[in-house]
Amino acid sequence: MAERLIYLPLGGAGEIGMNAYVYGYGAPGKERLILVDLGVTFGDMDSSPGIDLIMPDLTWLEENRDRLEAIFITHGHEDHLGALAHLWPRLEVPVYARKFTGTLCRLKLEEMGLPAETVKFVDPRPQVIEAGPFSVQFMPVSHSIPESAALIIDTPAGRIVHTGDFKLDETPVVGDPFEPAKWSEIASEGQGVKVLTCDSTNVFSSHPGRSESLLADPIREWVMAQKNMVVATTFASNIARLKTLADAAIASGRKVCLLGRAMRRMVSVGFETGVLRDFPETIGPDEASDMPRDKVMLIVTGSQGERRAASAQLSRGRYLGLSLKEGDSFLFSSKTIPGNERSVGRIMNALSEMGVDAFDDQDGLYHVSGHANRPDIEKIHELLKPQIVIPMHGEHLHLREHVQIARGKGLKAEIATNGTMLELTGDAPRVIDQVETGRLYLDGNTLIGAMDGIVRDRIRMALNGHALVSVIVDEDDNVLPDAWVELMGLPERTRGGDDLARHIEAELAEFLEGADDKLVRDDKKMDDAIRKITRQVSMEEIGKKPEVTVIVSRLTAD
Amino acid sequence: MAERLIYLPLGGAGEIGMNAYVYGYGAPGKERLILVDLGVTFGDMDSSPGIDLIMPDLTWLEENRDRLEAIFITHGHEDHLGALAHLWPRLEVPVYARKFTGTLCRLKLEEMGLPAETVKFVDPRPQVIEAGPFSVQFMPVSHSIPESAALIIDTPAGRIVHTGDFKLDETPVVGDPFEPAKWSEIASEGQGVKVLTCDSTNVFSSHPGRSESLLADPIREWVMAQKNMVVATTFASNIARLKTLADAAIASGRKVCLLGRAMRRMVSVGFETGVLRDFPETIGPDEASDMPRDKVMLIVTGSQGERRAASAQLSRGRYLGLSLKEGDSFLFSSKTIPGNERSVGRIMNALSEMGVDAFDDQDGLYHVSGHANRPDIEKIHELLKPQIVIPMHGEHLHLREHVQIARGKGLKAEIATNGTMLELTGDAPRVIDQVETGRLYLDGNTLIGAMDGIVRDRIRMALNGHALVSVIVDEDDNVLPDAWVELMGLPERTRGGDDLARHIEAELAEFLEGADDKLVRDDKKMDDAIRKITRQVSMEEIGKKPEVTVIVSRLTAD
């Protein structure tokens, strides 16, 4: 059977987060594989309480692990590399990345006690990594973190360009500028570009994207206008932004103090890898608290309102000896990711209560996006002239819009969400399989399946409360008529003022008193009957049916 | 001691939601009181899982109930009247509202088996309601629901204007237009306006607010451009919008079908009270499903992504026999309230998966706000020329901004959040007391306090899981060495593959075996020791400390 080129997203397609894309080439079912990116997404109280990190379920890849050649990481954002240290032990293949990204990968592996040297540093194109039938080059792109790369993946079936996250920025402050000629070159080599797998995040933004360098003047002017202490927050990994903020501080006669572990780590990796050269000298929190307030700028983590980050801690009071006062100013040089509005709002209001003036991105004055907008995406279509466009890095509606744009220009395009395997060998993409995919939750230090029911039970307890019933069956299979009931997350008193737990106990005692031997001997039947009564009584008394756990303790003569 | 005028927000100041504002006049501590609005806010999974409705804790008012004269409801939104039926039994005073609002109040009271006639219908000014020392008139204002009113409250200490929610709309489609002359008139009567208590929701919007009537053309054009079935969603109470949408349907040769209980109820109350006169005839879902798809427009509830509303149900499949298909179109004629982005996003993506084109408000083309923007607020300052401005209906940062605007114009202004009692008798507002306030949660059919710990326990179970331990102490105060452990919302297996519950049981058995008599006789000590072991073992095995409930069953000889 003829060899074929396949594409299979295991994460990141039909969602924004936990990117993981597989390419394969070879005889059907025997394709040699590479994985592009291995990221996480973050949990939330609505759908995954108690879960910090969510990552793709790689079962399919693990089952085909002997066919996997390598992992390529496009850039250092958590949604592209955050799962590497957790899932690498299931794959154990070499990892390739540019130096800044690779250093971040190595730090993560080391923290988990894994071998850092599994991550190989790669130079930008023309260096080529051979991985089975794939020849891969890293093509520098601008994004909101240094050293992002698109991958140029040459295969016997033609050239793929996998953009990773990108924007078109000719003056990105830090890192490689966008140069249209370099993109045209990619299209002009060999047979040109067969497949473009392309970032879709900002496909609904109709104006061309704006350069990072546009922020320097507004941010400097803003800092200079402030009279007391200045605090700014942004993503720690946005090193260009850190530099813009720090430069503004210096221009206004302020010293810079970086707060938050991620902030200090990113700057240190930036220096170590050479991506950051002329960052101003910083001071520590002790020194900062001794300075006159109008001579300091804090640059802090927590732009999304994260509860434990520096910005949230400052909004609640002190952080490392520093505290804000009336007349201070706080800038969110960031965009609030949908879903984080309440957390960010909490901080803004807490600052307001202290008399601190909070400023947000003011419709773009103090923030630009790291992703290509619609006109930029179209420009890349034009420069690369691909035969096929596969949108990725987007929710379903982004992918769908991107497909419609591509088709509108006569390009072949297909929506492939997580688990949809496409064949790309022919003139147009073809869906050839649906692979089971899913999510893994990091819970404490354990990886659990999203569908294991554990988180579902937590959500149910949160919504309905939890009633616990303990019943004892003695050595002679007689049930003791006492039932012990404890409630958690439920009102103690009924509307009528009764004690709810005692009320349930009384109803259960009455039932147990008359329970026949057959029922008492059957755990399942006992459990069902007790649960039913508990829920019924609760419904009558408080209008709510709790989750119920029954423990039947059977005494044994010993 | 001299008589005084006081203001005390019990809800709605320092938050957007659950409005409840008290005014008082009389000798200190003996002021006669009125309450303006009695609304709810909605729970969310982050901070109040399992709670549908949140309302102000009226303890202070209940303790001073003999001083309360009446309740005035400014308009029919849930955040202004939603708590009435739940809390009226604690107050039992007459309720005054305009007819449309009053009818909604009566429906709510009737549903709870309370006397509807306690709600009195009031005509707009010049009708005056006398309530103790207060003379109150309802002044029509525009908002996103018919028959909204500002209250003109005359007191021996001067005139108060309490705006309620308002915008300045000279062409509001349904209801009373904004007429500047009428506002000037209020300022010119008697001594003019002493206090303006003013909506602050949109204080950060710098452009003047836009009229409801501006939407007619874009919405009609949008509907006419659609080829198959059209669905639109907005707040059911926005009757002007319903009319604009329905008119657009008729103009494009479509019949209108209203879906969702709230939608039908609002239109029916609109007809009954005369606020809605020329709404097009509607068809039922059966008839709609028999019509050609391009001859129907569904107007549905659920613009905020509410899980049980018509829009969410349609996005998941069928609703009352109707279902959407590829090529249909769906319009959110609404703004997503911060915090609801994920829910709305879920619907947009589900529609995208069906091939339905979803449209949102497109930066205002298909939606206008019901609240006054900054220039509108300033206009009201100018027309009413108040001596004192008290911002309400806003989070802290809105109130603070509004105070700064007022002070910038030389007006006296003060931030008063929930529980802050102001004296308004003098030339400037003065904080005279901090009253304890809080929130009540409607849980099932029971009102519980936000600080009762019930919801805190639910959140903890959701984050940490719940381990249940049952231990038995026999008639002779000997503890049985077996402990029964059940887990809810926790991984069954440790990283090493062990059964976590059995592992905890084994550790507990070992402890109980050696437990001394003193400990066994002490419930609290037993509980603490068992809890500690359970949490320690879990931490070691899964990296997580669960909530633990211990049931010690003490057998009695009987």
UniProtKB/TrEMBL annotation, chains A, B:
Keyword flag Zinc: yes
Pfam families: Lactamase_B, RMMBL, RNase_J_b_CASP, RNase_J_C
CDD domains listed in its UniProt record: RNaseJ_MBL-fold
Origin superkingdom: Bacteria
The keyword Mitochondrion belongs to this UniProt entry's keyword annotation: no
Keywords: Exonuclease, Hydrolase, Metal-binding, Nuclease, RNA-binding, Zinc
Domain (Metallo-beta-lactamase): residue spans on this chain: 17-207
Gene Ontology molecular function, alphabetical: exonuclease activity; metal ion binding; RNA binding
Protein name (Swiss-Prot/TrEMBL): Ribonuclease J
Organism (species): Paracoccus methylarcula
